[in-house]
Amino acid sequence: MEKTLFKFIWRYSKRDQIILLVMTALSFPFLYFSLDLPKIIINKAISGKNIPSEIFGVPIDQIEYLLVLSLAFLLLVCINGGFKFYVNVFRGQLGERMLRRLRFDLLARVLRFPLPQFRRVSQGEVIQMVTAEVEPLGGFVGDSVALPAFQGGTLITILIFMFVQDWMLGLAAIALYPIQGYIIPKLQWHVNQLGKARVQNVRRLSEKIGESVSGIEELHANDGARRVLATFTERLGTIYDIRYEIFQRKFFIKFVNNFIAQLTPFFFYSIGGYLVIKGDLTFGALVAILAAYKDLSAPWKELLTYYQRLADSKIKYDQVIEQFDPPGILPENAQFAELEADFSLAGTISANNLSVLDDEGQPVIESLSFKSEKSEQVAIVGPSSGGKDLAAILLARLLIPDGGQIKVADKMTLELPQAATGRRMAYVGPSAFVFNSSLKENILLGAMHQPMEVGAEEDLSSEEKKRNFRNAELSGNSLDDLEANWLDYKAIGSDSDTGLREKLLDLLKIVDLDDDTYALGLRGTINPLENKELTENILSARKALQERLKQPEISEAVELFDKEKFNNNASVAENLLFGTPVGDNFVIEKIAENEYVRETLRLVELENEFVRVGRDVASTMVELFADLPSDHEYFSQYSFIAGDDLPDFQILLGRAERLGLDSMEQEDRDRFLALPFMLIPARHRLGLITDEIKARILKARQEFASNIPDSLRGSIEFYSEEKYNGSASLQDNILFGKIASDKADSSEQVGNLISEVIET
Asked: Quick one: which of 26, 38, 387, 443 could link to 365 by a disulfide (CB 3.0–4.6 Å)?
């Protein structure tokens, strides 16, 4: 990466900066004419002096002349606005493109960091630098050349106009600029140093936050919260003091600028007025100068602000580059170099005089030498602190030795590209990381190095793909198509998706993950529109399962859903909804807060009944569990009341006894109202959901489904025996019911039954 900000800007945006400069230069003549035209309007068109008799052969009078000049002024305003619009949009696009390039370059360098660097810089610091700290640089890059040229040119154009009208007023306009030019940079230097200190302290705070999140288990186990909060207080206080001083100095600079800006009109009114009175200056010229000076302050302020941003951006860029250029970083060509088709690392592995130093420069491994043939199985033994754990890391070239060399098949590993060790050598460490993607992609990570085939045509138009490709190219980003097929079937030893699937299943069995993966898959959801064949198979499995459940020995293991029946193994909320919530509107934890649900309960006279049932549930729970610790296993079975909530419900029960349910505050009634929704009659066996209440819940189910407003229709997917429920898991779609919780071994029976149905 370029060492200075302007080298980075000029190297990657020279052409665009030149375009901005050309467009800026073209705008200045129009700006000058727009400044001069008001003087002509006042001195000629309005005063009636020296009015031309015709324009382009067309006779005109004073009024027509005034209208022509006014329209010309309006046209110049539009032209100047058009120039500003084009330049500003172009600058913004250029800044965002360069910010995209900078972030990509920084992320690419992170992937080339040596492993020890990640012990010196925290994850929080890297994220902070790549996201937040470089953000202002994007805006500055677009302005870096064009803004001083545009605003400086505007300033010079206005000053030339002023000097043309009267040299004394022109001199008065710029008389105080040297003072500002001398004072402001000196004041700004202190602000810049404070800004640098602020950035460093924010990084340290970010590092401490990341450390606290990573070590939260230790903090809980050792009651370390108060000390951590004291550390936060100290660091937040430091940042506060720095920012307060920045505010003081920054607004003092603004005060000085504003004072000088308001002092200049004094000269215009006094000197200009004197010259008009004496007849040495026309009134129209004075008005034009005053209007021009009003426009003069804006570019001057922009230039002063630009200077402040320039200094701040240089500091940010220098600090970021310093952090992203650690010693031992992998060369860029080693990261992306490709291998010859017949490249092989099969052969003797040898190490000669290897040494590794820790962060303090003390030797962890010293003078290590060994040799191993490719057919040998080798175990590395030694004391726990002797560095034996680093030997395999060195062989895999995840760590660069401080001395010595390693050869594999007579090839120096340090001279090989990353593709060599990444594709021809396997390394499995003591800890593994699972990426936030599918299980399949995590398993096949070692076979997805580069696009193998062009991606299939998607819904996106080819023009949009071309535009995205062009933007990536202009931003110096990767040109690889993420939608392409990245899977190297040859490396896997397969030639089709079918063969790949068989290999994956074999692998899962080898590492004893087949049962876990199967269970994970059953708990997952799919989009039925994108998986029509699988959806049809699941519906077929549902019908097959229902046929199997007709057998007497397993008929009671599952209670199937029936639109006309109450399901005792489902919660009251599930019985009411008769569907799967989509989003948060109808989740069981918040369902009692939903106004439409409450309206439905009131319609079938269930709201007050639910409050009474909730009071009885709370009373039973308090009576049974008041003397149990909050982490007792019974609380997991009756999970609708947590152990920590029991004291609150004791208070509510006392209030209900004293005031009566009808006289309680709505907030207290709502807490009772929420409890019945979580009841599962067959599991909790409290006897509170009577047959009469079940009948009214079924009535409420019908009202809920038939009257649901359009705004909530997308918040639930109703059960249907003939349709796949895209919001429910694969297992729930196959079952289309609930496993009986009051039958021994019902879960195991149903699990085996589902497996048999799927396999057949």
From this structure: 387
